[in-house]
Amino acid sequence: MQLVQIPYTTATPPFVLVRADHVSMDRWRPPTFTSPQYTTVRVPAPQVLLQEPPATGWQLLEPIPLTLEVDQTEGEVRVVAYDTLVNVYGVGATAAEAISDLKSMLVDLYEELEASQAVLSPSLQQQWRRLRSVMARI
Amino acid sequence: MPIEKKDLRRCLVQKFGFEQVPGTRHDAVALFVGGRKVATTRFSRGHDDINPAILSQIAKQIWVQLAYLQGMYDCHNSRQDYIELLRQSGRI
Predict the structure, then answer these.
(1) CA B79, CA A120: separation in Å to the nearest integer?
(2) CA-nearest residue of chain A to B21?
(3) CB B27 within 8 A of CB B42
(4) ipTM of the predicted structure?
(5) Which residue, A39, A52, A80, A88, has most beta carbons within 10 Å?
(6) CB–CB of A123 and B2 under 8 A?
(7) How many domains in chain A?
(8) B44-84 per-position pLDDT tens digit
(9) Chain B residues with CB inside 8 Å of A117's CB?
(10) Which range of residues forms the domain containing residue A61?
């Protein structure tokens, strides 16, 4: 989940749904609010499935669920794509760029762990096994 | 205030003893303890500064919570503290 700020205007008043038989009309008054500039709502971060090979010469053995987060700082929009399976992320100006960067990071991590198999700690061995379960060289 | 990528990398290398991983495309650094590689992280080429979403991913890669990594960067957590945390959490 991520927090998204939505401009708060009179066109989007804070409706409150109540059962009609719970409203005593003689005591009802229109809702008042102080017109804050923004209201914060919680929406799920978009998720996509990575299904294509991370690079030429590689194959994906099973789809990898990715989460996309959009960040806007000082006018610059940046998308961060990440997975929770092997903890890899990618960054770009668009979702496509971020996913492309993530795929490059996947290959980079695979090659690093492969080259240092003999000295991996148990946690990194586990990460290496997870990585091998989702991608492989052709 | 975003953290500069080069500053976080320098912090991990100089203060926490991470080593440059040769031959990687994404500027990876790894921590060795007792001859074992216990953590590795890499910095994407797609950015120069690190926002909270990226910092959170780097924290996961080195087996700590986001707040702990911020403490590492802010000098509240030492290398000794970090190694001890890795031991306590079974990462070493």
Answers:
(1) 20
(2) A112
(3) yes
(4) 0.93
(5) A88
(6) no
(7) 1
(8) 887 788 888 899 999 999 999 999 999 999 988 999 999 99
(9) none
(10) 2-137
